[in-house]
Design a protein that fits this description.
The complex is a heterotrimer of chains A (551), B (170) and C (277). Chain A is mainly beta and 551 residues long. Helix content of chain A is 6%, strand content 55%. In chain A, the strands form four sheets. Chain A has a 24-stranded antiparallel barrel. Chain A has a two-stranded antiparallel ribbon with strand order 6-7. A two-stranded antiparallel sheet of chain A has the order 8-9. Classes of the chains: A mainly beta (551), B alpha+beta (170), C alpha+beta (277).
Chain lengths: 551, 170, 277
């Protein structure tokens, strides 16, 4: 933490003490939260756990927010001593990763310092944090939000992005306008047709210091969006475009980029249908053209696939959006069978069916003299509506939730997936993985406070490292205690010495907004994904202590 | 050693604030309603009756289990106490469009808000989901919990009834 | 309505910001600066690393723009990307020297390709992404030389021994500990390489591996030249000898020598000379 940062942070902190020391009623409120994970690492050569010289590693966060009427300010103190395995080692030491001050007056909101924000669905701009993944692309600069008339929402900002305890090279500038037609007048407010339109513009500036190639210093992007709802139907669409933006992520090609995201939904009581389609074409957008990993992202490209919640399904072969090009569509139906019918049972049954498919986009050589994707050329040309031949991912899944009685609740899950590990995890030459997953999640309520939950899961495949089985047994005493044991067993590994059990035991104590949890056991090497962004977690074995609280 | 000091500090802060009887109100953040319109959370109220604000996500098993459990008794709760549950989905752009059909498909009668970028979540100092807040008729947060277990719904209802009668929660 | 005007003006200003649509050809016009300072780029790589050919290409283009002034060493590291596999990947290019550099400087912590330019440290890390090598190289090459290195080699084919004589001369006052490290590299090795630009399974069986680190003459970290005050003109001459490995082609081998400050580990000057010239 350098001196300037410290001074700035102290200023923000002193804002608290000044404002909270006046000693009168209605002084405003101070609230915050705290979270830490401390892990002790054992040596475990069998699972290939890396040696941790420190033996103990720790990530810690503390937020403090002060609010008084229309004013608020806050800081987040972060501590990595040293960062847990799997986090970027540039998260090191202590510092204020976030500090801001903001006030609202006459429909104008001004923010100075750090802020998070999103335009539309984030295809063009999304700044957010996901601390379990080490993702934090907080903006640092100035932001204005303004509502000049009812129904018109304007936003503008100029800022740099957070890069560990420093800042990225590039400057990001953005503006966004959204009109909610139904708020423009009294008559429209009661219309059955609800319409919102919006438009955004984002540009980044980064000096070209490269002595070999000409690189664009200002890269602009723009887009529009529309959302229409009529009775049980709703439609949403967004299209964004970006000029040439050669970067490490796209192999320094000079092609323009674009992204489109469409959604259609129908819902009535007991039935919901959702259809989605998207096309992404060379749309990695970062404030530093050399950035890789999860750093300095300006936009967010959501994966159009089901976000799995069962542990094998969510962590062994998770899909992540391919910013260099993909076409995807998804359909989901959720239907609740009537209670007291033969099918629905006494307490009702919900069936959730989801299908998604992701392909590459069409990529052809840009002209006869360049090869496909050659750096420092146009890279490729693509026909907009043509679907590429390569399949990245397919997923058909069904989830049935059924309550059998006051004591028994069950969830059954089945999925059939096709996973292109070559592309999604970047392992060239590895065969595509065809897998079946099944899971049963059964809860038995002993009495009003005690319950047992059993989760049994299997992932069946002949490719990669073979099949897995997992079982979880959890005993809860509401509202304080939870004790769980989990085992994941790679029983189908073709190499018999790698048929390893990954067992974990976990005890959690909750008191209102405070949680303490102690876990001991093995963590499988793999991907940890939240919201389609993933981080690689190395194998580890040891004791983890987690504390989280809000006040 | 430093690490443990930090943990103690964090907990210390917590108890200090508890001592200070600092009444928390619902923070202000811009979220979306299911029809896509913008909504500022400082407008949340239930006309002097108790209100529950529950943060959840479509990918979170325990959240859905809790909301399902409450859904079965929700009509009775409302009849007895006038309570309203606001379910704040923290699903981002990936699943945001699915929230409406999901809630309808589940026959949930809750008021649903979308917090796709976690602005409201952060303003309320929520670390992870599920996290439920109980708000009294004056708009003060009187109780919160960051987890859920089968049977919690009974305790929550006990608390709601207390708040509806105007009793203090210790 | 009056309230909207400043805001719209702001948005309008944003739109007016020039955006740089670059028309081909995309190469900068070379301005080739003169000078005697040379820099060392250490490219940490592996034959199973599908993005690594991009880094090798970056070095090649840089050497074209700054001819004779960019010295490169390819250090094959990590078990993920550089362990010998079956079939066409049956060679192990890893060296104890490369491994110890990697563990000391944490270059491969976030995967490959990655590397160091003169081992300078920026934002608390020495690893620099290959896309930034060019700009760091340029800023370093524009500095005046602070030392010179001259290398003389003699090679005896009967016992495959290389004798190298390295003369180092300081060109300004220094007061720190300076070390000289002398490595041996081999060019033009035909061996397979994963390359994600090729269609699946992305194997380039005839890839030409350049400047592969083969070993050192005086250990990974070299030896101390001076830890006393030196004045301009002070010079040191060191002589080392070692044998070439049985499979190495002597006509493709070269000696790379560099002087670095032991406290900062940053490189002052580097030089390269073929074994047979």
């Amino acid at each position: 933490m350098n001196k300037i940062q410290l001074k700035a942070a102290l200023l923000y902190v002193s804002c608290f003490f000044y404002l909270s020391s006046i000693g009168q009623p209605n002084l405003g409120e101070i609230h915050g939260n705290f979270q830490t994970d401390v892990q002790y690492y054992n040596k475990d050569t069998l699972i290939g756990a890396p040696i941790v010289p420190e033996k103990v590693l720790m990530n810690g966060f503390a937020n403090l927010n002060f609010t008084r009427e229309n004013f608020s300010c806050g800081v987040r103190y972060e501590s990595y001593l040293n960062a847990l395995q799997g986090f970027d080692t540039r998260y090191k030491g202590n510092g204020f990763g976030f500090r801001y001050a903001t006030y609202t007056k006459d429909n104008l909101t001004v923010t100075a310092g750090n802020f998070y924000d999103q335009f539309g669905s984030g295809l063009i701009f999304r700044s957010y944090e996901e601390r379990t993944l080490g993702v934090d692309n907080a903006m640092d600069g100035l932001r204005l939000k303004y509502r000049p008339i009812s129904g018109l929402y304007l936003k503008g900002f100029i800022a740099k992005q957070r890069f560990f305890f420093g800042q990225g090279e590039g400057i990001v500038r953005g503006a966004d306008a959204e009109i909610n037609v139904n708020e423009l007048s009294e008559q429209l407010a009661n219309a059955k047709l609800k319409v919102q339109v919006g438009g955004s513009f984002v540009s980044k500036y980064q000096q070209d210091k490269d002595i070999v190639y000409k690189l664009p210093e200002n890269v602009a992007s723009g887009g529009g969006r529309l959302k229409v709802a009529y009775g049980k139907f709703s439609f949403s669409g967004e299209y964004v475009q970006k000029i040439n933006d050669p970067s490490t992520m796209n192999n320094f090609i000079y092609k323009e980029g674009s992204a489109v995201l469409l959604g259609l939904a129908y819902s009535q009581k007991g039935l919901g249908i959702n259809l989605g389609a998207k096309r992404i074409d060379n749309m990695s957008f970062r404030s530093d053209r050399g950035a890789i990993g999860n750093n300095l992202m300006i936009n967010y490209l959501p994966a159009l696939t089901k976000q799995q919640s069962y542990n094998l399904a969510a962590s062994i072969y998770p899909y992540a959006s391919q910013p260099n090009g993909e076409m995807a569509y998804q359909a989901e139906v959720i239907y609740t069978l009537k209670k007291d019918s033969w099918l629905g049972g006494k307490y009702g049954t919900t069936v959730n069916v989801n299908y998604s498919e992701v392909h590459d986009i069409d990529k052809q050589i840009p002209n006869d003299s360049t090869s496909l994707l050659e750096p420092h050329t146009m890279g490729y040309k693509s026909e907009f509506l043509k679907v590429g031949e390569t399949v990245f991912f397919k997923d058909f899944n069904v989830e049935i939730t059924r309550k059998l009685s006051k004591k028994w609740k069950t969830v059954f899950f089945y999925a059939n997936q096709v996973y292109n590990i070559e592309v999604v995890q970047g392992h060239p030459g590895e065969p595509t993985i065809y897998s079946n997953l099944a899971a049963a999640d059964i809860t038995y309520k002993i009495n009003s406070t005690n319950a047992i939950r059993i989760e049994v899961e299997g992932l069946f495949t002949k490719q990669d490292i073979g099949s897995w089985a997992a079982a979880l047994l959890e005993y809860t005493v509401a509202p304080h205690w939870s004790v769980a044991v989990l085992d994941q067993y790679n029983y189908g590994n073709p190499e018999s010495e790698k048929q390893i059990h990954y067992y974990t035991g976990n005890i959690t104590y909750t008191q209102n907004a405070n949680r303490f949890s102690i876990a001991y056991g093995r963590q499988r090497a793999g991907l940890l994904c939240v919201g389609g962004v993933c981080r690689i977690v190395p194998a580890s074995n040891g004791l983890t202590l987690s504390v989280s609280s809000s006040f | 050693m430093q690490k443990f000091i930090l943990i103690l500090l964090g907990l210390g802060l917590n108890f200090i604030s508890a001592e200070a009887q600092n009444k928390q109100h619902i923070a202000s953040a811009d979220v979306k309603k299911l029809d896509g319109s913008s909504f500022n959370t400082s407008q949340l109220s239930n006309d002097g009756k108790p209100m529950l604000v529950d943060f959840w996500a479509t990918w979170c098993g325990p959240c859905k289990a809790e909301l399902n459990a409450i859904a079965e008794e929700y009509a009775e709760w409302q009849k007895e106490t006038g309570v309203k549950l606001v379910a704040v989905s923290i699903d981002d752009a990936r699943n945001m469009e699915k929230v409406g059909p999901y809630v309808n498909g589940k026959n949930w009668e809750y008021e649903v808000l979308l917090d796709p970028n976690g602005d409201f979540k952060r303003a309320m100092n929520v670390n992870n989901v599920p996290h439920i807040f109980l708000v009294n008729g004056k708009g003060e947060i009187v109780w919160q919990q960051n987890s859920s277990a089968p049977g919690d719904e009974d305790k929550i209802f006990e608390l709601v009834k207390k708040v509806a009668k105007g009793e203090e929660i210790k | 309505m009056k309230k909207i005007i400043p805001f719209l003006a702001l948005i309008f200003a944003l739109f007016l910001m020039s955006c740089d649509k670059v028309e081909g050809p995309y190469t900068e016009v070379s301005t080739g600066s003169t000078g005697t300072r040379k820099i060392l780029i250490e490219d940490f790589t592996g034959h199973l690393c599908p993005n690594c050919p991009r880094a090798a290409e970056a070095i090649k283009s840089l050497q074209l723009v700054r001819p004779g002034r960019v010295i490169a060493i390819g250090e094959h590291v990590t078990s993920i990307f550089a362990s010998p596999g079956s079939g066409i990947y049956n060679i192990d290019f890893r060296t104890p020297i490369g491994n110890s550099n990697d563990s000391l400087f944490h270059v491969s912590d976030l995967g490959l390709p990655s590397g160091m330019v003169n081992r300078i440290s920026r934002n608390g890390a020495r690893r620099i992404e290959y896309s930034k090598w060019s700009e760091y190289a340029d800023s370093l090459l524009n500095l005046p030389a602070e030392a010179t290195i001259t290398i003389e080699n003699t090679y005896t084919s009967t016992n495959r021994i290389v004798i190298t004589t390295v003369k180092c001369e300081f060109l300004k006052d220094f007061n720190s500990t300076y070390k000289l490290a002398v490595y041996l590299i081999e060019d033009s090795i035909l061996h397979a390489q994963k390359d994600n630009q090729l269609p699946s399974p992305a194997n380039d069986s005839d890839y030409v591996h350049q400047h592969v680190l083969r070993g050192a003459f005086n250990g990974a970290f070299g030896e101390i030249l001076t830890s006393a005050v030196v004045s301009p003109g002070t010079n040191f001459t060191k002589t080392y000898a070692r044998a070439l490995g049985a499979s190495w082609k002597e006509k493709h081998c070269a000696v790379v020598a560099f002087i670095y400050d032991d406290s900062t580990k940053e490189i002052l000057q580097a030089e390269e000379k073929e074994v047979i010239y």
